[in-house]
Fold this sequence. Notes:
Layout: E1 2-7, E2 12-20, E3 25-34, H1 41-59, E4 63-67, H2 75-94, E5 99-102, H3 104-112, H4 119-129, H5 139-154
Helix pairs in contact: 1-2, 3-5, 4-5
Amino acid sequence: MRILGIDCGSQATGYGVIDTDGTRHTMVACGVIRTKASEELSLRLKTIGEGLRRIIADYAPEEAAVEDTFTGENVRSALKLTHVRGVALFVCAEAGIPVAAYPPAQVKLALVGNGRADKQQVAWMTRVLLKLDESPRSPDASDALAVAICHAARRSTPVPL
Length: 161
């Protein structure tokens, strides 16, 4: 099974593609789709959509997973993330790829065993589970791989969108 994990961000959207049998995972690709903060949001969303289309065309994932938007205290940032998440959902649906969504705490719990784990713990466990020599350079790419691994572990009971 090939899974695309997406970590939505308006300036840096991470992606991670893994192959998995449900218990063993192999990284196929990971990276970040970057946009310019000076650009209009609509242009950034277009860039992200085009990038995700290329990734889907290049790697042909069978399923995808995104992290739910965390509202936090900055509502404006949460709204931007929600727009990016909408683009990710649209592009996956357009390609006929089923998408699951997971709250951040569930991703952390699936990887580390602690829903309040910090980014370093998640990155370390991602590296261990994928048997990588080093963590991806970008925390956004590492987070996207974590979302993909979470989906691989939880795909029998995904959270509905």
